[in-house]
Amino acid sequence: MELLRRRNKQARFMTELRASLARYGINTEEGDRALAELESERVVMIRDNFCADPHLTGVDLRVVALVERVDGGDPHRSAIRLIDEAWNKWMSEYLANHRCG
Fold first, then answer.
1. DSSP string, the chain
2. Is the N end or the C end of the chain the one with fewer CB atoms within 10 Å?
3. In this predicted model, what pLDDT tens digit does every residue of 2-56 receive, in sequence order?
């Protein structure tokens, strides 16, 4: 949870979160188990994303956010908004810089 809070309560891609956990000696299996537990307790929200680009086949595009009240709003809506913002920003940058073909 602290890794998510460090980014000013912003969402993070699962790959980023796993890399950060690895720096603390937490392997993928342990991290996934902890995240699944936090998700079942509704502490975090994990949303799957999809991009039809064949270069992203097999890439984990899930985004994780804390389920907390942001700016006085509903905690779940706030998490969805943060996830959508992270995804949209990444997708815009990806599409602006990537050319298939």
1. -HHHHTTTT--EEHHHHHHHHHHTT--HHHHHHHHHHHHHTTSEEEE------GGGTT----EEEE---STTS-HHHHHHHHHHHHHHHHHHHHHHH----
2. C
3. 777 776 668 999 999 999 999 999 999 999 999 999 999 999 999 999 988 888 8
Alpha-carbon distance of 5 to 1, in angstroms, equals 6
Sign of CA dihedral 27, 86, 58, 43: positive
Tokens at 21, concatenated: 């956990």
The number of residues making up the chain comes to: 101
